Every structure is written in C-alpha cells, then in structure tokens.
## 1
Amino acid sequence: MADGQFVIIDGNELSFEEGETLLQVAARADIEIPTLCYDERLSPAGACRMCLVEVEGSRLMQPACSFKATGGMVVRTQTPKVERNRRFLLSLHMADTEQDRERAEDANPSRIFDLADVHGTAGCFPKVEQKRSGRPQDVNKFIEFRPERCINCSLCTRYCEQIEAVSAITLAGRGAETTISTADAKSLTDTTCELCGGCVAVCPTGAMTEKPALAYGKPEKELEKIRTTCNFCGVGCQLDLNVDREANRIVKATSPPPGTTVNDGSLCVKGRFANDFVHHEERLTSPLIRQEDGSFREASWDEALDRVVSGLQGIADRHGEDALAFISSSRCTGEENYLFQKLSRAAFRTHNVHQCAAT
Ligand code: SF4
Ligand code: SF4
Ligand code: FES
C-alpha cells in the first residue's frame, strides 16, 4: 500500500479520506480519544486540548479534533505523556469551574467529571480567580448563564451560529475575562435568540442551564428520562422528559444525543421549554359533555366517544356525509393524522378532511 493512503494510530494501519481529522479516523476504528469542546455537528475549535495526541516528528502534541491526517503519519493516543496531559487538564478545568462534583452537577451533568472518572486527575489545584462577567440583567425566563462555570469551550456559540444560524451569543472580552455575552450584554429575549436551548444542551459544565429546572432544585442525574415524541408539531422530534418520580412531575425536557433521532440533538423552544402545561391546575384530565342547560359535566371516555359517534352519525343521516368535515392538527403525529383521514374517508365516507399544516 502506498504511504499516502494510511495513517498509523496506536499501531493500527488506518485508511482515511482527504481532509479527515485524526479524531474521525480514530473513531472509525473504535479508538477513543477524549474530547470536551468537540461536537461532530460543529467545526472544531481546538479550545480544550483534551484530545491532544502524540504525532511522530512533531515536537508538540496535536489536537486530534482539528489535526488533519496525512499519509504515513504515526500517531499515539495512549502514551504516559498523553495521559498525563489529560489528568493535568482536567484538574485545571475543575479549578476554573467547580471542584466539588455535587455542586458541579447541581443541575446538569458535568462532562469534566465524567472524563475524570475515566482518566483521573492530577489532584486538586487552587481555585482560579473568577473574572468572567455574567448577565444579571438577563430576565429571559428559560436560560441561565453561570459565568463561574464556563470554560470558554465555545460549544454554545458555535451551536448558536452553525446549527441554529442565529448568533445571539458570542465570546466576548479577552484573556481571563473572556465570557459568553450578547450584543451590549442584553437579555437573550432582546436579541435574535430563539430560546431553542441548544446552548444548554451542548454545554459540558452546566454553565448554561435551564432556569425552571434550576429553580426546581433536583439534579438531572436524579431524574428519570422518558423518551417521547414531541406533539407541538408534526416533525416528530424525539425528546426525553426528565421526570421526578417521587413528585410525579416533569422537571424539564432534554434532547436525545446527536445522531440518534430525527432532530439530531436539537429541539425548538416549545419542545424544550413548554412542558409546564402538563401540570396546570386547569388542565382537562377527563372528557366533558355539554348538558341541556349548556353547562359541562365530566364523563367517561366510553360515554364521550359514544356521544361523538352518535352526533356525527346523526348529521350524516339527516344531511348526508358531505355535511361533515374533519379537521385535524399538525400537533398530531403522522400516524394519528393517517387514522383521522381514515375515519373521515372509510367510516364516514367523505373526503372533507384537512389538516392545518397543509395550508
Ligand atoms: S437558546 Fe438557541 S438561539 Fe438562543 S442563544 Fe442558545 S443556542 Fe442561540
Ligand atoms: S457556557 Fe458552556 S458551552 Fe458555552 S463556552 Fe462556557 S462552558 Fe462552553
Ligand atoms: S476536543 Fe480537541 S481541543 Fe477540545
């Protein structure tokens, strides 16, 4: 084989395509290289240095997430030097965010501690003085930014720019004062932000977090994830309802990992944040039937469905089937809409059926 077609990673001869990074080539061969600021949906930033590996002939270690493979390159990902760097970096990041795991994971899980479980640390370093400014005047109801936990990985700003195409947030300031800000440090609701919460989903430290869940006060790791289909529109995004079983409450919604469902790790503002209606005290929990005097009374599902059938059949008998019209909602799933048109066409024999997303 010609030199130009292969790299050697940990002794494995691996083929690659022009432009591929060492991380991509290694991942295909199930060689795991830890990352903190990498997301395969985004252009690499090379910000965290967790993915540094040894490349033969290179004096410095190189970031696998952005370093391109070239023919004949010899790479080592598990040497004592590489492992020492990982432990050292994790201790540094902890000193810059939160060194106590329980506090670090008071809301969202911490990728730093997950990595420390695997690679260890170099001990507890003195806490770094916090110079990043927050946005205390940001009165948006959904997203909290805690500057003391930010490690400037720029996952949130890259997500906002490259996936949401909004660029509501940016890295601002210099050196130790570099922080995540908006134009003129305005509230997110006074910017182009769509409150999609993608910045929260990608943040590895909990610096970006959900305000309602933070106020609720139970960490994500103590909640049970229930996979479901969002019913705000017909796209079929999958989301995980994070449920407090003891209180029987939905605390928040999170997106399943990128690459696993149709929404590829993203959600919109409704899917991510509009779930408190489930527990609203005025929410209907059983069918209501209108009585002779116009008031409603509670009924069983069987009784309510019988009433609907006899009402619709009565109209069809008196005025013909085309006197009926069936209008469904884009909030239903594709399957529900299919059944609805089947009800119209097969049971009531009319083509008067429509759905709001079709207009
Ligand atoms: S919520 Fe979405 S649009 Fe707003 S800053 Fe975060 S990623 Fe950008
Ligand atoms: S807020 Fe989170 S995602 Fe954004 S730069 Fe800071 S640590 Fe990274
Ligand atoms: S993952 Fe490569 S530098 Fe952060």
## 2
Amino acid sequence: MLEFEYDPDQKIDWLQTAPFLGVHVAAVIGLFAIPPTRELVAWAVVFYLVRMWSIIVGYHRYFSHRSFKTSRVFQFIMAFIGVSCVQKGPLWWAAHHRHHHRHSDQEPDIHSPTLRGFFWSHMGWIMCKKYHATEHHKIRDFMKYPELRWLDRHYIAVPVALGALLWWLAGFEVFVWAGLISTVVLWHGTFTINSLAHVFGKRRFKTKDTSRNNLFLSLVTLGEGWHNNHHYYPGSARQGFYWWEIDIGYYSLRLLALFGIVWDINEVPQRILDKGRTLDQKVSGNQGPAESTPSAAAEATSSAAKSAPAAESETESSLAAGG
Ligand SMILES: [Zn+2]
Ligand SMILES: [Zn+2]
C-alpha cells in the first residue's frame, strides 16, 4: 500500500484509481494487440494535439490564469474538449493549479517534486482521495456558470460518451488508439509539467520555486515547458517569451484573435522581456548563472512575488464585481 508518511490523509484511493490504472493496462495491451497503421497513428496524434491544446489553452491559460478573454460559447467549447482529456473538470483543475502558483514548492504545494518526490508530483497526488473535491472558493469567478458546474460535476460522462461514440462510428481499433493510447500519452505529457518542469531545464529567473524552462517539454505540451518564465510572470498568455521559445498555445491564441474568437490577450511586459535578455547575456558572458546574480535575483524574486498574487487578485476582483 502506498502511503505518505508526512500526511496520513494522503493515501491512494484504490477504488477511484482503478479505472485510471485500468486504462493504462488496456492501452499497453492495445499497443501490442493492434499494430499501428498510418491511419491509427494519425487518429491518436490528432486526438492528442486537440486535447492537449484544450488543457494548456483552456484549463491552464484561461480557467486558471484568465490570461485572455473569450465568449461564453467558446469558453464552454474549451471546457468541453478539456473534460474529454479525463483530467477532471475545469473548475477542479484550475482551482488546484491556482493553489500550486500560490504555494509553489512550499509546504502547502500539493505536487512539488522537490518536496514530495517524482511519483507523487507526477501522478500520486491525483490518485489521493484528499484532493478529489473541487475547492470552490478558489474558482468562484467561474462557479457562476451552470454549464461549467455541470461539466465539473459530471466530468466522467463526457469522455465515456465520446469514447462510446468513437467506438461505434470509427471502430474498435480507432477507439484503442485515439481513445486509450492517446489519452495515456496525453496524461503523462500533461503531468510532466508538474514533475519534470520543476526538475530538468534552465532557470532564467530566480523564482521562489524550482520551475525550469525546457524545450523538449514545450514541444510535448505545445508551449508549457517554458515553466520558469510562466512562474515568473503567470499572468501572461505567452509562456515562450522570445521568438526562439516555441509556444504553439500562444500562436493558436494569436490566430484565434484574428477571427475575433478570443481577445484581450495578456502579453509579457517589455520590462520583463528586457530583464530576461539581460539575464541571458550575463549567462552567455560567463558571469555565472543568472539566478546567482544578486541584484537580478533580488529583483526577479520581488517581481515574481508581485506577479503571482496579481494573477490571483485579478481573479478575485472580477469575482467581487460579478464579472
Ligand atoms: Zn509549476
Ligand atoms: Zn500556471
């Protein structure tokens, strides 16, 4: 039995976790039982990309950070596709993510790899009963939408219905590749940001956490691997701060803005971009890692401390205004 000594409440809920593990087993069996064809792999890749997009742009940059604005219809579309990722509902996801930013790598952080190890930060915490409930007080700004509350409460209904539809319309083999295998890869792709993006990569900014920038993770997650940038300035819809930091999620938002589907996209302020370049130049000039430069570090830390609560307080003020 997996138990975590630091908190007796943090035990794996095996009953709730069984379907999660069952999908893993089924996906591995499917991988060997149904050989990949070009068509099956294409199905899986498309299902992966569309759903990863809904998690990083919808669940993360929109519901968690409100880094752009959109219509109620498109908000629902993002939530609906997001629920098909089987990572629970948008309110649950965003509330836990806001908690992560508030306490990153400090004792209250639920999924810190530096405090609690790789397995726990990657997937252990999701399997734990203690964190099954949605913390409504952290996501009051979106609680007023009944359609979001419904999705959050019945988060399993959508993926089950879509899975059945996929099996019925496209056949069992497509269901295995686009439904099961794609979902397992999608899960672990997403989870890497909680685990690996706090362990492997470069730290441009000295934030109060252990977040890192990692190109490989950015490619896997369509732009979320610039996690140190993101922790430094979480209010921005853009996580790859410079042209060479590939951020497909951000490019998609610019494209959607051209059609008027999203608007008021929060950008990275010029002073932050300038500071990042200065820190990069110091590193390339062999003046030691950016984070060890005392003046830059002190300023970066104070700025991070300001920017994280700023994202929260924006949320809270809009709640107060009922907007
Ligand atoms: Zn993080
Ligand atoms: Zn975030």
## 3
Amino acid sequence: MNGATTSGELRAHNRARLLRAVHEGGATRTRSQLTRDLGLARGTASVLVAGLVEDELLHEEPAREQGRGRPTQVPGPHPRGPLALAADVREDAWELAACELGGRVTVLAVRPHDGTPEGALGTLGEALAAERERLGHRVAGVGVALAGPVRHGGLVDIAHLSWHTVDVPHLLTTPLPHPPTGARGSTDTPSRSGRAGDGWDSAGNPLPSGRAAGAPPLPARGAAAVLGGAGGWGVPLFVGNDTAFAALAEARRGRLRGVRVGLHLHVDFDLGGVLVVDGRPLGGAAGSGAEFGHMPLTGGERPCPCGALGCWSTEVGANALLRHAGLAHGGGRGREQAERVLATSRKAVAANARALGRGIAALVNAHDPEAVTLSGHGVELYERAGGTLRAAAEPYLMAIRREAPPRIEGSALGWRGALLGAMESVFDAFLTPEGLGEWRGSTP
Ligand SMILES: [Zn+2]
C-alpha cells in the first residue's frame, strides 16, 4: 500500500492525501465530504486540517449553502499558500500564470516572441525569475509546456521554428543580453541551443547556475530539473509537450476524467496526439511520446518539417488552414488569419475536418479508446464541422469499431489545457510527503 509504518509517516501520508483531494476536487468539497471520501475518522480529519491551516497550506471558508446545525467548512487554498508557476510556450507567444491549490489560475503575463529559442525562453526566464523573487517561498515549482517533442525532461525540438535539441532549463536560467539577439530561423547556435558532448556547453559560454560541464544528463520525464544553486531559483522545473500536458489536464479536470483509455488531440499550428491510459498520457521511453501527429494517417505525401513524409499534422491545424486558403504559412506565424479562415472558409474547415476524422479512425482502430477529446483549434473545428469529421472517419473504421464508436468531444478546457497540465505536473510532485516536508522547512 502506501508503505507508511510509523504514526509520523502515516500523518504525512494523510496530509498529502487530503491536500490532493482538495486540489483534485477544485477546492469545492466540504470538510465532511472529504472526510468521508478519504475514509478518515472525523477527529483525525479535524487534526489534519488544523495542522494544514497552521502550515499555511489550507484555508477554510464556510460552505455557501448552509443547512441547520454547525456551519460546514470548505477547505481551499491558503492566501499565503503554495503556487505553481505554469507557462504555455506557443510558436508565436507565451503565457505565464500562477496557479493555486484547487486549480484557480491567475494569468500574470502574455507576451509575443520572435520565434527564436532566446526570444521565447530568455524572456520567459526573466519573467519567471521576477515572479520567483516576488512570490518567494510560495513557488512550489515551475511547469513549462512547449509546442514540440520534449526529451529527457528538457530538450525540445520545434520543427516549424527550426529549434533543434534546445536545452530549455539552460535558456530559462541564462541571462539575456538586451535587446534579445538572434535572427528568426537562425536558431542552430550550438552554444545556446545545442547540447555539447557530455556537458551543456563547450563554446565558452557561461554555464547555467548550479550545473557544471560533465554534469549528469537531465532526468527522465516525470522527474524535475531543479533550478537551484547560486543565482538559480531553487525550485523544481517540469518541462513537457503541450499535447501531453493538455491531455493530463483533460484527464484530471476535463472530459477524460475517469476514462481508462482515451485519446487526446491538441490542434494549434499543427496537430499533436497522445494516448491517455488510467489518467496518464503515455510518455514514451525518453518522454517524447505525444506524437500521433507525425504518423502518415491520411495517405498524403507532403514533406513535414519534422523530417518525415506525409505526416497527419501537415493536414490539420492553423498551417493547413492557411495553406488551404492560399495564404503564407509556417514559422509559427499567421494565428489571426488562421482564426479568420476557421471562422469563414467552409472549404478549408471541411478539408481539416476530413483529415482529422480519417486520422482519428486509424487511431481508434489501433487503440480502442473510450473517448476522443480535442483541444485548441480542435474545439472550434469540431463545432463547425463535427458531422463532416464523423462522416470522414466512418469508412476507415473497422466494422467492430463502427458498432460502438467512441464519443468525440471538444475539450471544456479549450486553450487552457496545456497550462493546466503544466500546473498539475508541479502539484503532482509537491503533494507528496517529501514535497510537503520541504514546504514546512521553507515557510517563514
Ligand atoms: Zn512530421
């Protein structure tokens, strides 16, 4: 079971369970509901909650609807409690937010960037460092979602932007020269984006704080790179793919909640997709598993910036919409025009929906999911052309799949999924006896 043997360990385990239940329930469950759901004795729950309030992890408010008798309390985030800093780095802009226990999001900044690793991650790093300074010990960790495959917890490739093996923790903690340098497209500078030999930099550039040449490689996905040491932030960093994070959020707070096998597809400039099993997106051996978009599911022959031929993602998303409308596409540019095409061009929307449906059919044949969820542009695409999509899928489904096809739905989280998934990755590590132990050590 949990392996807790001493009463101290059991208490630490129950503290983490209770906080996790508050978080997963969106800070809406009353204390008595939580007590019942977790199978705790009433007295035990009272002592636990009192301790968590004292440690500034929880704060109780009276429930809105009161019956007779003693008022019911709803445990929620403490006003000086832990925060996850979460960022969604898209191909043309990033968004940074502070997230409380329970999942409430406060957007701190949205900033367009120039498409270079330094322009995107350097400016985000500065904003993160400033927020870390401002919020102090309240920052439990940082989660960063990126629009490309992420390997070994921090190395990202974004083919449309010519990012190759970009070392995300390094760039987030390397001070920027001002103004940011680097022309768009010329991003292959090995000094900052490449990973040299066993170390992190062999070009005479300063190494990131707390990490020396020859340091061990970044930990595998799911573990954190700690941005610590002198000049560092001293908090865990979780870097992940936007589709995988959107899928994680969908499994925790969206339409894949309680689904054993689900398929999540995130549509932005192109398409990402991942299988979600028992609430977890399948990450692959090195963490870059969320890449159904790079399978030749629609029979096309178009070369994809990823290096493969005929990828599904060349047929779905903002780039494909722009191409169908005869507009310039690629390079993470043209979001507003693509949105206009999505709203006005039935032809471009139908072509996207047909490609989406045909690819979904292939994946449904392979994986037998209970549900298929769509986020990003996928929500609007499905609203506008769900019938076309389903009709396109039908002939490509195996007969046994056609009898009871999975439900297909737009995400209720819309564009927020990647950011929320980045938040969940931080709280997954924090809401453990070890994470909470560090909080107790760090609170003033
Ligand atoms: Zn591809």
## 4
Amino acid sequence: MPEFGDAKLKEWDSDVVAGREPLRPESGLLRGVTTDRPPRSAEARRAFEASDALTRLVVLPNAHDLQARAALLEKALATGDQRSVRVEGESILELLARTYEITTPRLRVLGTRPRKVWEGGQFELFGDYDFQEKRIRIWMRTAVLEKVTSYRGLLHTLLHEFCHHLDREGLGFLETPHTRGFHGRVDDLYHLALATPPKSRRPLVWIRMGSAWRIDWSKLRTSRSGDR
Ligand SMILES: [Zn+2]
C-alpha cells in the first residue's frame, strides 16, 4: 500500500483552493488516510469546518438492505467480472441515493489501477469522482500484480466516492474536502455495510500533521489489519 506522496498532496490542495479540480482522485484510502489542509478563503473555510464537525451520518440506509447488497458485491468481485461488479455497485449506490434523496451517481468499473511512480514515491489510483458528470470510477485490479482487489478495499472506495457525491448533492459541501468528518461519514457507511459489531468498531483517532490530520493506525491496527 503506497502512502500519499507530499508532492501529490500539494498538487491536490492547490487545485482545491483554486476551485479548478474536476476530479477527486483517491489513493491509499485505508492506510494513508489524511485530511486536506484548510482552505484560505473565509467562505471555503466555513464549509470545511462544517464538514470537519459532521463526524457521523444522522440518517443511515436500511442496514439489512445495505448488507445484502454489499454481500452481492462481494460475490460479484469474487467472479472477477467487471460488469457484475458494476451492477452490484450500482445497486448499492441506488439504495444510498434513495436514502439521502439525491440523484444516483453513475458508476464505471475499470480494470488495472493507473499508477504513477516518481523519485521517492508512487501513486496508485483506487477511484475518483467527476463533479460535472456525477460519475464514480473504481478500479478493481491492483497496479503491479493485476490481482482482483480485496472486497473491503473496493467497498471502501465505492463508499468514499459516494460520500463526495453526497457532500455536493445533499450536504452542500461543494468542494467536498477530505476532512475528519468526511472520513467519519465514510466509516459509518463502511461498517454498516459490513455489519461490524459496535464493540469491534474503533473510533478514528487523528494525529496532527502540520495543518492537516492523519489517522493514527497504531490505535486501529487490531480492528483493521487485513482490510486490504
Ligand atoms: Zn476522496
């Protein structure tokens, strides 16, 4: 699992601040979870802080329905068939969109993850969300070995991308920043889909990294090892 490279973080941040970013590219979703840095403008900063504070989803989809659809996604992924993965992924998105009374985002399921390597780091794309098209893309094979990605990893990517769509369409966070609240909302859907028993679910623990935050995995290792 690659971590974020600093260069990439800077690039994303400058795109967000300038409001030019058409895509939300994702890498290192579980191990390298970091927040974006707060934007400079007062208005963007207010939305950022509101997103940061909203650490739980008040409304959740029907648990049994979500878990049943997630189980079908797991079965589809085991077949390695992109079309089946798309159909079951769309079924999850349909339930979520209906729950939050927003449009259903489009979904594309692609093969081998794009990968960029530079001196001192590498970047593997897991998924992204296109603001204009309202379209999620997820990749289902690892960059180097081209093996089918883990079910939990793929599910997490899908829910993460849905939360960008929910931010823009339902919560009014148009820049849909990666805040502690954003990651908390993804975590809510992820553990609901997996039917994680409440006592096994660890709260996300954040440690400061300059003006951003990253997850302290040493506090989560027991509950999350083997996610990818
Ligand atoms: Zn994201």
